[in-house]
TrEMBL record:
InterPro entries: ER, GroES-like_sf, NAD(P)-bd_dom_sf. Signal peptide: none annotated. This is Zinc-binding dehydrogenase. The keyword Flavoprotein does not apply. Residues 20-336 form the Enoyl reductase (ER) domain. The keyword Nucleotidyltransferase does not apply. SUPFAM superfamilies: GroES-like, NAD(P)-binding Rossmann-fold domains. It comes from Acidovorax benzenivorans. Keywords: NADP, Oxidoreductase. SMART domains: PKS_ER.
Amino acid sequence: MNPSIPTTALQLRSLVQADGTLQISLEPTPVPTPGPEEVLIQVQATPINPSDIGLLLGPADLSTVQVTGTAERPVATARIPERAMPGMAARLGQSMPVGNEGAGLVVAAGASPAAQALLGRTVAVIGGAMYGQYRAMPAAQCLVLPTGTTAAEGASCFVNPLTALSMVETMKREGHTALVHTAAASNLGQMLNKVCQKDGIGLVNIVRKPEQAALLRGLGAQHVCDSSAPTFMAELTDALAATGATIAFDATGGGTLAGQILQCMEAAINRTAKEYSRYGSAVHKQVYLYGHLDTRPTEIQRTFGMAWGVGGWLLFPFLQKIGDEATQALRARVAAELKTTFASHYARTVSLAGALSADAIAFYGPRNTGAKVLMDPSM
């Protein structure tokens, strides 16, 4: 390898201890020598996504965060509520690397022509353990960023863009024609709006605050419903009747929202029903839970007949299901629209050490809209 590449580098790791303490630290790890078909990436940008926070912070009580250590090697700790510890049994005592995706410069490459062709290029990857200074990856799994695209611009080109496209793909494959999305003012929600507007697909956005509704309307969203408004159910039913949406993707997970969506779908369908059925409409209504922003149990009150379903949905199992060819088509669209449809926006950029400050954790930990953070491990 290049002699300027260090033999060890820092990697952010999350550890759940048996006494109920979460510990996040920066640990020195060997910098790998890439194999014949691999490249070594100096990571320059990696986002803190909600899916990353689930592993990084787990169910820790953020009000108990304490930071010790040094400025260069901080150690953040927090208490995990006793009721949440049974769910952590499988990871007790394991120091786990974090970070789903990111981008950076290829600084070393294996002997294969495919690997050598990436030397000196800026690439994006999704492979886990991205919260570190270096990451070795197979050359075949690297997405070469278009000329003039920075690592920061390409850092989030997998999880959110592919999720937005895969939601639309799921809708089409399951025979629906329009969809509903909750927590819709997020980076992902904004991308989904752009996709649906460009592709002429009806989209109903559900948000929790008036300012989030205003944000989406400013981006051209036609149907935006604020769940905090007293007229929410009536407005949601109107939007569902206008779009014909019968599939929803719910990021909140808990509480009553999934059931409310199904109830309003049934009400919208019944506006044009020709005859009464005690079993409800025959149109299948589907809600997929893909997040857990609301940690309460999911509550369903069955007021919408028998043709309905609630289930879980995750990006990577869906991509495995549709196969390599279909997945590559989605990735190609992301690359082509990286600076338009799939542009990401960040509220802050922090270093590895900066991500462990109490202030930073308090900022990104609650997963609030507008609080997306980019990490630059090369800082």
